[in-house]
Amino acid sequence: MTTPDRPERANTDRPRLVYRLCHADDWQAAVRAGTFTGTDVDTRDGFVHLSAADQVEETARRHYADVRPLILVAVDTARVVGDLRWERSRDGAAFPHLYGSIPLEAVLSALPLAEDRDHHLIFPLLTNTPGDV
């Protein structure tokens, strides 16, 4: 049973594919290191912030409005290192939080996000299933 003080653990009902938004410089540092361990915000919070497909655009709007160039990283949760927990966050929704790191082998794609004429990010079709990427 999930309570406000008790996180939801990853299970088979959860999406296997999750996403991470990050500045291009942070992504390049991860590529050089062979793993993504997060940013200063992640370090402060104690976990790597991730989003499900239906959470990405709102996450971008709220937390990455002024971050450019922005990279969208698709992550296979079966290949991450550490403990993936689905914890209540924004508006009570469960978000994937990784208490660990994302090795490059867990990354299915890393796409730079373009903007339209009005400077709105253009997102590809997002899915929760790795075979659809």
Automatic annotation (TrEMBL):
<protein>
    <submittedName>
        <fullName>DUF952 domain-containing protein</fullName>
    </submittedName>
</protein>
<dbReference type="Pfam" id="PF06108">
    <property type="entry name" value="DUF952"/>
</dbReference>
<dbReference type="InterPro" id="IPR009297">
    <property type="entry name" value="DUF952"/>
</dbReference>
